[in-house]
Each structure stands twice: as C-alpha cells, then as structure tokens.
Amino acid sequence: MDNFEPKIIGFFCNWCTSAAADLAGTSRLHYPSNIRPIRVMCSGSVDMSYILRSLFQGADGVIIGGCHPGDCHYVNGNFKARRRVVLLKNIMRSLGLEEERVWLRWISASEGKKFAETMNEITEKIKALGPNKMGTLNQT
Known about the structure:
Layout: E1 8-13, H1 17-26, E2 35-40, H2 48-56, E3 61-66, H3 77-94, E4 102-106, H4 112-129
Parallel strand pairs: 1-2, 1-3, 3-4
Helix pairs in contact: 1-4
C-alpha cells in the first residue's frame, strides 16, 4: 500500500481548468503525474455516466474542474456540473460507494498554483483511501 499510486481522471474545462493546468506546467509547478486529464468544453458537459464509467473501469478517483460560478463561458454550465455531482454523490452514498473519490473544484485560468495544489491534495486523499474497489467489479 505504501507504493500505491492512484489513477485519477480529470475532466477539465477548456476555458479555465485546462488553461490553469497549462499555466502550472509553464510555471514549473510540481504536481503528480498520475492525473489523466481530459479536456472538455465545459464542466457542465460531464455526464454522471462518464464519472461512474471511469470509476468502474479502474480509476481510483475523478476530479471535475471548471470555471468559478458566475464566470462560465456557457453561462450556467458549472451550475449544472455542481447539481450533477451533488446528485451523483447522493446516489453513491445510498449505494455504499465511496463518494470521496469524486471531486469538483473551481479553478480559473489564472490559478496555476491552485491547480497544482489541488492535484497534490486529491492525490494524497485518494492515496489514503487506497485502491478503488469499484474498479474490480467488472474484472473476472
């Protein structure tokens, strides 16, 4: 368990969080390389099925990154994302699944440092949770 390195899927808004990831990289800020970024046009376009599929196919955690509320390039996409994540976490809780494996964070394009800090934080929290047991459900 000491050498466990979690696989974390990141669904990042094209306009904010992906740009923050670029800024963190060009600023040479250090964050774990176990984040698998997927650029989406808006955090509101991330369907719950994408998150669950990631977890059931072996990801140890999922983070959705979007624009701060009120700053969405698609007006209310981040509000949709927030509602979906709250609903998904309620469903996961009722099924006895670890809702702590799903994160939603608002990180704007100018917040490269916050991006790196958040990626470090989620990696440490997921590491503490250990490997995802949901990912073993479809392995026979």
